Amino acid sequence: MKHLLLAIASLACCGATQPADSQPAPATELRLRFVDGGRRPVQVSRAELLLVAWRDADRLPLPVQGDRVHLNLSPSWLRSRWPMRFPDLIRAYLYVQAEGYAPVRSEPFLWLGSRAATRGRDPDAVTIDFRQGRPAVLREGEHTERTIMLRRPRPRGVTLVGDDGRPVGGVRVSAYMFWSASNHCGVLNGADSLGEYVSDDAGQLMLPDGDFEYALVLEENRSTFQLPPGPGVTAVIQHLGSPASGDYRSTLISVLQPPNTTFHVHRFAHRPLHARILRGGRSVAQVTLMCWLANCGCGACSGPLATSDADGRITVEDFYPEEIEGLFICGPDGKRIWQMPCRSLAGGTVDIDLSPDHVTDR
């Protein structure tokens, strides 16, 4: 019995001690300290992870200890807090706010252990960069410290000019702190509203200050930020509604240069469309003219414009050629029997001949 008790005690003792290879891996930790221009500590009011997966954006609050933020970059840490989407994580940002200071957002980074990271240049390292000198580069199990300087807000202006370079007043713009438009339609799904603004007679908007990418959305139909974009612009996204709605939106994503950044806004030219539907020289009534939209990434990219009257005539007063890629007519079986690129339109009335010699299934 004595020997049996000793054996049980020995097994219990051994079972309580984990093998070396089952010990928890050391955390990968970034320790950040925030200071002002005089190197004095700044109390952080809010720190977050901004997370991006395809068709999904989320934010996770981080614990704040006065002027310090500690971020656990281990795969297991984020996997336990974002379990459903962690494998699909595209990128992440660190976003920090402090009362009386301009908020700051890091550059995008890949999380250790995510699929995106395994396809990156260095899958075994994560790089956190606030564009303040040397970025923090960590491998799994490492920890490091960085000091990040926060600055006082300053005037942050945007000037809108037209095709001729002159200021454009009266333009409504919605502004956002941006982190994601990762979806099929390019719609903002990771963005904090900064408000809506209207350009003055000098074409100027004054926006809240921050060290991050801004998303600026033109809130007027048939206007677009002009391509090609200027320095610092990440993307220009066009959003089109149905062919008849004119619900056109243009979104520009950019870092703004202090104290002012100029962007060109192009307004589509208005040119009413006049067409006449003919067959063998005779007018054809009740034929529907269709169009397909330019730069249409999702949604209803084609649809009806108008139907010919008893004299075979079609008039579309609210017509803007630049938003249309082309025109077409379908036969009874739904196949296109006539089409024309919009760029081929000339002035005056367009004659559309549906005679057998002119009709082709293209």
Explain what you see.
The chain has 362 residues and is mainly beta. It is built from 3 helices and 27 strands. Strands 13-12-15-18-17 form a 5-stranded antiparallel beta sheet, with no helix packed on it. The N and C termini lie far apart (94 Å).
Strand percentage: 35-45%
Give the SSE string: HEEEEEHEEHEEEEEEEEEEEEEEEEEEEE
| Number of β-strand runs | 27
By helix and strand content, what is the structural category? mainly beta
Instruction: Supply Rg.
Output: 29 Å
Low-confidence stretches: 1-20
- Percent helix, as a range, is under 10%
Continuous helix count:
3
Strand order of the largest sheet: 13-12-15-18-17
Mean pLDDT, to the nearest integer, reads: 88
> What gross morphology would you assign?
elongated
Q: How many angstroms does the end-to-end distance come to?
A: 94 Å
Tell me about the biggest sheet?
A: 5 strands, antiparallel
Task: Chart the SSEs and their pairings.
Elements lengths: L1 H15 L12 E7 L10 E8 L2 E6 L2 E2 L2 E5 L2 H7 L7 E9 L6 E2 L9 H4 L6 E4 L7 E4 L3 E7 L7 E5 L10 E9 L9 E9 L5 E3 L6 E6 L4 E3 L7 E8 L7 E8 L4 E8 L5 E7 L2 E2 L4 E6 L8 E6 L5 E4 L7 E7 L5 E6 L7 E5 L9
Parallel strand pairs: 1-10, 11-19, 20-27
Antiparallel strand pairs: 1-5, 2-3, 2-6, 4-5, 6-7, 8-9, 11-14, 12-13, 12-15, 15-18, 16-19, 17-18, 20-21, 20-24, 22-23, 22-25, 25-26
